[in-house]
Predict the 3D structure of the following.
Amino acid sequence: MAGETLIIGGGVVGLAIARELHKRGHSDITIVDKGICGQEASWAAGGMLGPQAESDHGGEFFDLCSESRDLYPQFAKELLAETGVDVELDTNGTLYVAFSSIEMAKLKSRFELHRGRGLTVELLDAADIRRREPFISPDVVGGLFFPNDWQIENRKLILALRKYAELNRIEIVENCEIDKIETKDGTVTRAMAADREFECESVVLCAGAWTNKLGLATAGIVPVRGQMICYRTAKRVYEHVIYSSRGYIVPRRDGRVLAGSTSEFVGYSKGVTDAGIATLREMAEEISPSLASQTPYDSWSGLRPKATEEMPVIGRIEGLSNAFIAAGHYRNGILLAPLTANMIADRFDIDTTVMPNRISATN
Ligand SMILES: Cc1cc2nc3c(=O)[nH]c(=O)nc-3n(C[C@H](O)[C@H](O)[C@H](O)COP(=O)(O)OP(=O)(O)OC[C@H]3O[C@@H](n4cnc5c(N)ncnc54)[C@H](O)[C@@H]3O)c2cc1C
């Protein structure tokens, strides 16, 4: 089978790159996935778009996350027009609550830090928080409000991106695991699965936590398991994503409340554990004791792709003129998807000898 561009891995990153390349006029794009597109980390995620809640440090990573978050209103609007799928961008903002004076002192210094960098953040007392979230624990002593940390329904995002591919003749090949990539004279020539071969003019590796196994780039990506549980309330009762220092709850439009997440170095083993569920229930019920009357109705896990120094690896692979990598997005791959797609498409469109990779562990 011949294809101009082969994208290996159809998670949020691969699907977003396929869309962006197509929008810029590239044709003959094939996405190949070892399972079903979007069913790995991108399915398991919480969908938070939270540069400020996730990071205390400024710098390049924070800037990338903020830049990508800013792309979301347009991204969501375009996807709705292109596919009819509403990805439920929710701009209600994120609360970060404290349960003790020690936690509150830490949040106050975060407040100073963020304000000092010119970011929008509000310092709230317990009464302020209760006004905004009536079901919050009476033990909350105060917190921060990040109005620019949002969320989307990541499963709808996957649906929208997949639909875009289907509507625009981007080929999707599923249940097909690439196990070998052939190179010749500094170019990738073919990618092979057990019973198929893909010839390609360019290849993009976006196999998430499995990217290292493809062998081309030594980006040091390892899987970090995250477990999640999900409650269901009759209607939406929480307005905001709510973090504590032990985890977060994410209220969805339809009344589901996600609670996450663990961080476990257990190789490629997926699945939830009794201990994981118990920890998440304790965390969620600490934030909102009213959840204690419910048994979570669903649970799942996913493997976050963690690269060296927790920075995503986005760019051309050193020594190969037609191979790119976009992987290692760790805790923020949903947030970073639109910017990653733009960055990879930019590198297709220009002579990269004059444009270095913006972030890359490969060179
Ligand atoms: C519990 C949890 C909560 C999270 N919450 C958030 C959040 O709130 N906000 C946020 O921004 N991020 C969050 N993340 C992180 C986010 O989910 C990931 O960073 C993102 O999904 C990575 O996308 P990806 O496309 O690189 O990987 P994946 O979604 O894992 O996709 C990789 C794809 O590659 C395929 N593949 C692998 N190997 C091969 C091969 N050899 N051949 C063919 N196909 C292959 C896989 O089948 C898979 O479909 C969370 C993650 C977890 C686990």
Summary: The radius of gyration is 21 Å. The longest helix spans residues 60-83.
